[in-house]
Amino acid sequence: MKKNQHAQQLKPQRTRINGIQRTVNTIQSRLASLSDEKELDNHQIGLVCNEVAQQIDNIRLQLRRAGSSPSKITGASQVAYRWLMFISKPETVRKHVQSLVIARDHATAMTARSINLFKTSNLPVSIQFYNTRYLYKGTRTPRQIKITLNEAFIGAPPIILENLIHLAMGERDQKKSDVIRQYTRQPAFLHDYEALYSHQTRIKAPEGNYANLVTIFERVNKEYFAGSLSQPRLGWSSRKSLKKLGHYRIDTDTLVISKSLDSPHVPSHVIDFVMYHELLHKHIGATRHNGRMRAHTSEFRAAEKRFRFYQEASAFLEKLAQSE
Ligand SMILES: [Zn+2]
Predict the structure, then answer these.
(1) Model confidence over 259-312: pLDDT tens digits?
(2) Cα dist. 308→74, 101, 198, 230 in Å?
(3) In this structure, how many other beta carbons lie within 10 angstroms of the beta carbon of residue 259?
(4) Residues 167 and 294 placed together within one structural domain of the fold
(5) Strands 136-140 and 145-150, how do they pair?
(6) How far is the CA of 143 from the centre of ligand 1 (A)?
(7) Cα–Cα distances in Å, from 297 out to 33, 77, 276, 293, 305?
(8) Model confidence, pTM
(9) Of 28, 189, 263, 311, which residue has the fewest beta carbons closer than 10 angstroms?
(10) What is the Å distance from ligand 1's center to 277 Cα?
(11) Which residues of 84-99 are buried (b: 16+ CB within 10 A; e: fewer)?
């Protein structure tokens, strides 16, 4: 039994999402046409967000029907899914379009003066921001110059976007590269970059030294959710944090519990409680419309108190936090 579960964890069932790339292309062209408008209006932004939310809902439905979940999506589909999740908020769409305008205007001005490695002044430039592994890329086809910039650059100061365009057009400039590199170390960039590409949180297998998260999940799911929750990607954290005892990522359906709780000194109802807390995030988040998770509402706190050993477990965790 235990061996079986282990094998399952090592070789998870992977899922591809049909048509997701087409969806991305559609949304990209909506964003491009928004950038052609004279003024950005909230109504137009709202329409794009609704379309994205609808696509995300469709994907989730597709996954549920296949008995799968977001954590099991394969490579390129996972990248696309992440991008859709990222672009689903109005303020993100606004930033995206504003940055697109700045980048495109600069690129157009450059090609008009033939300032680029491609040495041409009569090719149209097409620019997009997307969830890429690289920071920027420029290619020339017979019909156009195509530039792709990492989505995490949206909202960057104009000088950053302009430098990126120069570099993507093949200019070699150490100073510009340095400025870009510096920007990629700032929280504004890192925050988005992490939400986008870097994907899977690094976690250890669910079988710990003392406790098995799969067993715990099954127990808590049965007792508190009537077995209705699908199993998320489960794992112990790689670091023994006492501050962050657990977390749940709705976008990748990943539930992580701090390695500090995998100990003979931690009663099983304490791990059950942390598991219950994180599963509540999955449960409540899953019923929410476009996957946004409000953290600890009063509704959440009330549900949390339904845990059988609520008092004992909270007291234990409080003491543990103080011991640090
Ligand atoms: Zn929480």
Answers:
(1) 999 999 999 999 999 999 999 988 887 454 444 445 688 888 999 999 999 999
(2) 38, 55, 38, 22
(3) 18
(4) no
(5) antiparallel
(6) 51
(7) 38, 32, 16, 10, 13
(8) 0.60
(9) 311
(10) 6
(11) bbbbbbeebbbbbbbb
Q: Give the DSSP H or E segment for 304.
A: helix 298-304
C-alpha 85 to ligand 1 mean position (Å)? 20
Bridge partners (DSSP) listed for residue 299: none
Q: How far is the CA of 322 from the centre of ligand 1 (A)?
A: 19
Q: How far is the CA of 313 from the centre of ligand 1 (A)?
A: 15
Domain finish residue from 169, 196, 223: 196
Residue 253 CB neighbours (<10 A):
21
The rounded Å distance from CA 293 to ligand 1 centre is 10
Structure tokens belonging to residue 205? 């297998």
Helix, strand, coil in percent for the chain, rounding step 5: 55, 10, 35
* Same domain? 254 vs 307: yes
Domain of residue 315 covers 203-322
